[in-house]
Amino acid sequence: MPNTCSFAISNVFCWICFRADMLNKLGGDVTVVHLPEAGLHENTHFPMSDLNNREVAELMYEWLCAKGLD
Question: For residue 57, is pLDDT > 50?
């Protein structure tokens, strides 16, 4: 999963990446995913209400499995 910051995306997204990097430096384990970069488009802020909610859930499940949290 991508964990990058591109100013071309938006300043808000870059702020999120900045915060994620800060939390990771403090020992956290934050992964930022820009859904269009992950191949998921037409999403809102309510991922389980979107028409592609199954794909979003699969992406989240893959992340959980990668962290040993499944």
Answer: yes
